[in-house]
User: Which sequence fits this backbone?
């Protein structure tokens, strides 16, 4: 039935010398799988992909695949400014055994629609695993227009999209346009229950990293059509997303995981760690939903 | 139980000499009431408030109140750059017999949070009817921050908010913050069914002007908790909102009403009328939902 | 030789009942003329045009024309969202005896290039006095593209443009494009000496209201090609423009004039008056250039 | 007397296998030095730093330093999202023999003022060569505020700033603030003659790569205070900057160099090469100034 459900965006725990803290990351993966998540996503925004070297990225994906041991799919984030780099990353991640690629286009100068199409279709052609298109107009200089999304949806292994725009109506427009050819995942900028209502298949988001059981429960309620119960839970979970929107995403999730006993550290400098106010806000949000 | 349900944003039909076409507007109001709408809203964005003189605005509100004859509430749009002007408009609309005020802050220079609070609280103090706060960060230079919305929610006759930001998560944050003190209406930039799911009480929007029966049906399905049936209808109605987002709002709704036989004319110059492509898109969208 | 030199943007002094303080405005006009300014501009941004009713605007233009008594040209600001309103305002100002029109396009919805052209050309056709096109992308939702500026420059009584974008390179592109057909005035967002260097003919700006003698001196130095002396003066004058960019424009100039003994009052609510810090900053800037 | 004059932003010629075309780059450097430029800047925006791997960047800096043979200073671009990466790049470029560092802050999440200060001061501390701060609010998510620029100007080897904002008034504000502590270079978004007039010391820009003799001539005229002659030349040179602002910067300069006989190739995919219209526009601009 394809990818679906709750895919936490994993943080990238790194020590002061730049080494990936393999044991911390592996324990986090194991605990998330035990909590029932449906997949794992290393190297999303929350995973600080934009702040990591290629050897660091490669190591993280390797650790996550090894930890998952095939129990849940691993969708690895590929982000590049050039097509050639994106293709090389994707091939290596497929070789390492990932189940899918979360494809991100970075850019410095604006990219034309044709350039956007060329980038994503080149990645799709280079690998055999499914692609999840990622678009985040807030942090990226390019955007995926509806016509380009439609064109890309006709490529056989481009089967998913994750839109981080906060404009939920855009997701419904995409669903109306691409029909069964492409499935939609929510981001933390959308209300997951709303995206499930309009036809989404799940969500990929940082907050699921610190509230995995509650996220899975919310997903199950939505799947069963228990919308009132889902909204009761969703309302309480939303405070976490609000904190997430207010602070640096990586800082927020790393701060929450530290509270839960994972020594994931702070985001890489010059990013600021979660400030005391933010720690307090995340702590309260976690306690309120029983995640601390 | 307060304002709730479907409030079409009325267009402002004006002839070439600047006269309001009273008969066209009155017939539209009558037909909308017959179609079951729960209220009428003259002088929203779709009503081209920003393009009308004060005598024209006053005349429109008078016609709508006369047409409604108390059968449904009339919530009149008040928009001004100065507090004094907003207070004067509001008092006059209350004297004319409106049921509520849709309060809009126009600005040229940026307004501080204190200025925003002072503006809306002065209107609330000047009238006894309920206020609906309106915010549209796309077309206005001011925005209502969450702390200011919270402060305003403690004023007794500020009971509603309509946010036209397209960020549905923001509505859930507002609901979580203000609880029972303030009720939320959707705008056409949100998916109405999603806003109903998260706790909204209805919507105020231009498309309801050209699809009133379908809008009322959608509202009833949401109220009954028939979410699957609601989404079936919502999906088909969304094409209308997409056209609405693509073209000038007033041009789009006026174009649709012309297709339905209302001689509402074109938007005021230098606004462009709906282009042939847009007319065709609106026509197809109306036919598809049985509204033409 | 056409309009040239220093045109202060006049503030609009209004008492608490909404009456224009005619004596204060007349004295300011007289003093500015005595200081050597080359013209007067009521109802620019600094003049809070967006916050005034039509009777207030009409009265202000009348007072300024009466005060000038033909000694310097008066270029009156016309701002509207509809073509019809702009044409009516312009005709009335011409009837009152203004020497030129500063034409401003207000909008709520985005305006197409054709709409922009139609608006300005309709004003030009309606009057016989020269037009100054005004564009301010920071505070307005429309902008004048280079091709539209070029088309408008071929209309005989559209002879000037004032661009408030802060992008001085855009002014050189305009000058290269329109040649002798249109002359360029600087705004306070540009460095006047730079605009004079690249071929401008003067400036229309709020700060000239509180530093008229220094502004005229700067203009004379630029005209004579004494660029080093000009820059010595310009450097000191720039602190005033920086304060101007930091605070609400009307608040800043009204605050400075109050310090100089003109009872112009505060900007209209909900605009905030200049805060104590701003008053101190403006005072220091005025003292430093000998304007207080 | 420190860095001054014309520093062309070098393009990065790369073959289809990702190899730097050393001979093409070396010939370009030699010809620019023969044309009289005052320095060379590899890895600016025009140099596509955001699209190159670390080995490619390192190789380019090496080639440029080798080509310059000490005849003119080489200021190498350092761009990173993390402080650690920026420090490592800077140290290596100093080891290779560069004369200065052009320091660029890349970011994915917004950076606080403290983070911005920490990033640049860490680079300054890590090397002994002078730093040129670079800021480009159009293509970067961070910006250097005036207070942070002031703080950084007190660090001894931070001696220059290049602001690519198009807001020339901001440069004068910086000059007024930092006095002799920091010198200002123009970018191609500013009019170089204007920046020289207000006190700048030169410019670092892509167009100087294809019009080096004309750029040096303009610089000499400005230095001599021959402002009228300078403006005559500046006006004609500006057409090149306009093309530069209209198309992808790297595509534009690479396209111009190809016309001049340098086999620099196209920008890296998915960037588009200069389209036929753009080639024609650049050709006309080069012919008009005698650069083709």
Assistant:
């Amino acid at each position: 039935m394809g990818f679906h459900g709750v895919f936490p965006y994993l943080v990238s725990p790194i020590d002061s010398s730049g080494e990936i803290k393999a044991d911390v990351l592996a324990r986090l993966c194991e605990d998330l799988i035990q909590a029932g998540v449906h997949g794992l996503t290393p190297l999303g925004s929350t995973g600080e992909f934009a702040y990591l070297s290629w050897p660091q990225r490669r190591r993280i994906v390797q650790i996550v695949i090894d930890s998952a041991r095939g129990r849940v799919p691993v969708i690895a984030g590929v982000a590049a400014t050039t097509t050639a780099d994106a293709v090389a990353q994707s091939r290596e991640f497929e070789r390492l055994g990932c189940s899918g690629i979360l494809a991100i286009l970075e850019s410095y100068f604006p990219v034309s629609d044709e350039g956007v199409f060329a980038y994503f279709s080149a990645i799709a052609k280079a690998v055999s695993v499914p692609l999840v298109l990622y678009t985040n107009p807030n942090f990226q200089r390019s955007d995926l227009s509806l016509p380009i999304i439609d064109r890309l949806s006709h490529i056989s292994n481009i089967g998913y999209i994750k839109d981080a725009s906060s404009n939920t109506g855009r997701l419904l427009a995409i669903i109306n346009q691409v029909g069964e050819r492409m499935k939609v995942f929510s981001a933390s900028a959308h209300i997951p229950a709303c995206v499930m209502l309009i036809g989404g298949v799940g969500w990929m988001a940082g907050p699921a990293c610190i509230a995995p059981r509650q996220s899975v429960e919310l997903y199950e309620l939505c799947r069963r059509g228990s919308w009132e119960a889902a909204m009761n839970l969703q309302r309480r979970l939303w405070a976490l997303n609000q904190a997430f929107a207010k602070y640096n995403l990586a800082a927020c999730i790393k701060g929450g995981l530290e509270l839960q006993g994972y020594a994931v550290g702070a985001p890489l400098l010059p990013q600021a760690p979660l400030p005391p106010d933010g720690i307090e806000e995340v702590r309260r949000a976690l306690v309120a939903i029983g995640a601390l």
In short: The first strand of chain D starts at residue 5 and ends at 8. Chain D has one domain: 5-211+219-224. Residues 22 and 63 of chain D are 7 Å apart (CA to CA). Residues 5-211+219-224 of chain D form a domain with the TIM Barrel fold (CATH 3.20.20.70).
